């Protein structure tokens, strides 16, 4: 409502250090399925089967098929007004000499595609690989990432024995080791360097925006309670209530592609057409 928006605008105008946390919901309107919501990826496939180091050790072919499938979906997707509004807002913060950082749990790269530059990819990127042997991390946008994945659609978990031979999966150009997606799987920790960047972004942050995340995956789930406890203002943008809601001073219910531009005062007609 209007009063809520005006109150938020006053907080926004005063804030000197603004941090944003985004999740799969901000990309939902770009046609990328979220994890836990309706049509969520984890309702169709079991996370433990596909996004764990054990799964990759057991069946790297099936895991690569899953990530190839997700790359295909994301390759066709374009940023939506949520991404564009945050990119425009970053520019405004820069002009006003404010400190701005965008922490994202998404691995789709759409924030950068929309023009955001102060981005920390907490869970890695669909567009990067890491060598299991020498640890080399590279950007790789080739589609498909290896010949054997050509023409493959959704992974077939009912016949997981139909495997691509491991030598035909993506290999490291430096040492020929097996490559894996450079993403954080269940049971894995975030990189040290990333955790330091997060600490910096949350320390003395006077406004935290939390958009499109179910706020159940740690450590990101702890950011709203932390900033709130330290006296910062927290604003949530989500279609539903989440466990983080009770730590939020402002709650904007509705699709973030509408609520973010509105609350940040970014006119929709000034954003790129989607
Ligand atoms: P999640 O699926 O658990 O939660 C999505 C949240 O977004 C829900 O709270 C839902 O209510 C909300 N939502 C859905 N549509 C929305 C909309 N239009 N506007 C505003 N909110 C909306 O996702 P999460 O919290 O990001 O879960 C974390 C994990 O999901 C991370 O590990 C992340 O890497 C992964 N993930 C990433 C992508 C991507 O890169 N696009 C996609 C799926 C999952």
Automatic annotation (TrEMBL):
Cofactor(s) the protein requires to work: Zn(2+)
Domain of life: Eukaryota
Gene Ontology molecular functions: NAD+ binding; NAD-dependent protein lysine deacetylase activity; protein-malonyllysine demalonylase activity; protein-succinyllysine desuccinylase activity; zinc ion binding
GO cellular component term of the entry, any: mitochondrion
Enzyme class label: transferase
Binding site for substrate: 67, 70
Binding-site residues, Zn(2+): 131, 134, 172, 175
Keyword Mitochondrion in annotation: yes
PROSITE patterns reported in the protein's UniProt record: SIRTUIN
Role played: NAD-dependent lysine demalonylase, desuccinylase and deglutarylase that specifically removes malonyl, succinyl and glutaryl groups on target proteins. Has weak NAD-dependent protein deacetylase activity; however this activity may not be physiologically relevant in vivo.
HAMAP family in alphabetical order: Sirtuin_ClassIII
PANTHER family: NAD-DEPENDENT PROTEIN DEACYLASE, NAD-DEPENDENT PROTEIN DEACYLASE SIRTUIN-5, MITOCHONDRIAL-RELATED
Protein name: NAD-dependent protein deacylase
Species this protein is from: Riccia sorocarpa
């Amino acid at each position: 409502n209007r009063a809520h928006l005006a109150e938020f605008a006053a907080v926004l105008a005063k804030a000197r250090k603004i941090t944003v946390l985004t999740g799969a919901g901000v990309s939902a309107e770009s046609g990328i399925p979220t994890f836990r919501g309706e049509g969520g990826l984890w309702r169709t496939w079991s996370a433990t089967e596909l996004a764990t180091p054990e799964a990759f050790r057991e069946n790297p072919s099936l895991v690569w098929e899953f990530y190839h499938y997700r790359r295909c979906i994301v390759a066709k997707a374009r940023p939506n007004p949520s991404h564009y509004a945050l990119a425009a807002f970053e520019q405004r913060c820069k002009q006003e000499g404010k400190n701005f950082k965008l922490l994202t749990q998404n691995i789709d790269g759409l924030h950068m595609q929309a023009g955001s530059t102060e981005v920390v990819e907490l869970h890695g990127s669909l567009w990067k690989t890491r060598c299991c042997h020498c640890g080399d991390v590279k950007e790789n946008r080739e589609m498909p990432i290896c010949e054997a994945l050509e023409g493959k659609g959704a992974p077939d978990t009912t016949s997981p024995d139909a495997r691509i031979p491991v030598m035909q999966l993506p290999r490291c150009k430096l040492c020929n080791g097996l490559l894996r997606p450079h993403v954080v799987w269940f049971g894995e920790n975030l990189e040290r360097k990333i955790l330091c960047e997060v600490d910096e972004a949350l320390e003395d942050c006077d406004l935290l925006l939390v958009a499109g995340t179910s706020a159940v995956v740690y450590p990101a789930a702890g950011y709203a309670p932390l900033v709130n406890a330290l006296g910062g203002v927290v604003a949530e943008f989500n279609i539903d209530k989440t466990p983080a809601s009770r730590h939020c001073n402002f709650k904007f219910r509705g699709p973030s592609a509408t609520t973010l531009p509105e609350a940040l005062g970014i006119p929709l007609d000034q954003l790129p057409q989607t």
